[in-house]
Write a structure and sequence with these properties.
Chain lengths: 111, 119, 164
Amino acid sequence: MNETIGMVLVVTGLVFDFFGCLGLVRFPDVYNRLQASAKCITLGTCGILLGLICFKGFGATSVKAFLCLVFIILTAPVSAHALARAAYRSGVKPWSGTVEDEYSKDMDGIK
Amino acid sequence: MKRMRYFTGLAVIIIIAAVILYCPARSIIRWQSEFLGRAFLFLLLSASMCLYRVLRGPTAPDRAVAIDMLGILIVGFCAILCIPTGRDWYIDIGIAWALQSFIGIMALAKYLEGKDFDE
Amino acid sequence: MIKNVIMFMIWYMVWIFLSWPPEPKDIIVGAVVSLFVILMTADMMDRCDSKADIIRLPVRLAWFACYALVFIWECLKANVDVAYRVIRPDLPIRPGTIKVKVDLKSDAGLTFLANSVTLTPGTTTVDLDAGKGFLYVHMLVLKRDGRSIKAIGRFQKILKRIFE
């Protein structure tokens, strides 16, 4: 029973990882790529770690996997928006189909 | 032209996925659990797509994003390797990798921003 | 002072969990290392201005559980949405950066808000102007009063109950 739930979670995680990487390949500029991959790959890896917890049952490995999961959920968005900010500051222009861009106007005002 | 590229990519991905799903059990995968072997190969497909972005990325932030995502994927690799081999220290490697990759990416972001490190 | 003691307990617990099952040498080394970390970060903790009132703690924990449930639901919706947009051949995106007014004051609340905005449907935090209270948000499909902006408002209401 535990193994079945673990398999379902691992497959869900793999599918979301795959879509995140597909977004990394298909989307047209840095910000959209960041958008797709930061969400999908975080959830996908969390799914794989939850599957590991289901496979192993309660024990040392599961506790470590849970700590790793919490750590990834806390740090992945932080590194994502550090990279988005760095991309704007280093002068990468948004894609030509961008509708509106309020950050470029106000960028110099914020330290 | 755009449509042709889409369908070419779709065909390549479907062929690779079919090879992963239907290859004979003992030819590529020599693990106890056949399901996890195939899952590992599927994750390798995702990672190779990340590597494509590292190679082709037109700007430096593109490559930084791809490397960040590769770091999170490697934690997934460690988690999957942990189950069939029965070696529990793989998850320790995963935790250490997540920490290192986070610090590395923050330093890279500061560098791209053009600031000093002491802020 | 009390904040430092709580932080010491947290770091010590993390150390014990990472070296499960704990042996005597792990327990001693963990105490030394956590004490070292607390000594290094003591002045940083003193500068942060969160209130440590014990009476409202159960209420705040209950709201935190509520926040976690809402967060998981929004995160799943976000991923299905992105997956749908990725596999369409004509890429239905209309990206743009807009600014959103926020009225949270505490640092912890703003951090949690920025992180949850990044993991919810179609939005990523780019920068934060804490002085004027603006959050710069990159959206995959730009819509000024769509569901994504409403989701930010909902998170803000819950986080206000937790951190202020």
